[in-house]
Specification:
The chain is 30% helix and 30% strand.
Length: 258
Amino acid sequence: MEKNSFVREIEELSRNLRIDFVKKLHGFDSLDSTNRKAKELALAGAEEGTVVIAKVQTRGRGRFDRIWQSPEGGVYLSIILRPNVSAEKTSLLSFVAALAVTSTIESYGVHSTIKWPNDVRIKGKKVAGILLESEGKGQALNYIIIGVGMNLNVSVTQFSPDLQSHTTSMIAELNQPTEISDFLTKFLLQFNFYYILFKENRYESIVNQWKRQSDTIGKKILVRTASGTMDGIAFDVDSSGFLLLKSTSGDVQKNHER
Ligand code: BTN
């Protein structure tokens, strides 16, 4: 069967890309979830820098087991990483991904911010989401999958009505489509840049850049955690990427939700 143009475009990009950490891009016309596929490849021994990209997802995964609506025109990718790092620092990898997304968006002349922990927004509307999944025992992590979903050439009307008022896309902001290969190249270059900082243990630098790009610090927020909700003023983020919340009674709590 002849390969479709999306898969061919990703294969060509994979051959031509010269980015240190990227080993291979695997393109698919349709997948249930790129995170699920990346996990399968990681368990079969795929090396760090393997990237799975799908044109559409039929069961994209969001945080808290939500469905990530993944119509054609979006970017759905998962990166396999195998960093030699303590489990405590892995939350910072979602900062790495969020910074890579915001820098990529900025390179098109559009300002974007990060809402805790890693929603990327344009004028307060969500344009991208990040889902980190890892496996390993204790402190030794086998692999980490960083899943990134971005609304690129997707009209807001392609999402369900409940999402439309707080969702945006690059095409909605730019009034013109963005070439997927161009966007992927810029994103992977940016990811490489921030991942090098991570591998060099330059955590402060990552956190400081995250804070500059964030629209959460200084705000009164309600965060959903695996065990319930927490509210207070988000006043800082520590060097492991934990959000520090001050409640009305002055107690300080750490939130380690990814
Ligand atoms: C969120 O809930 O904000 C996170 C959404 C993450 C979606 C991406 S799309 C590519 C990758 N594959 C998945 O199944 N999920 C992530």
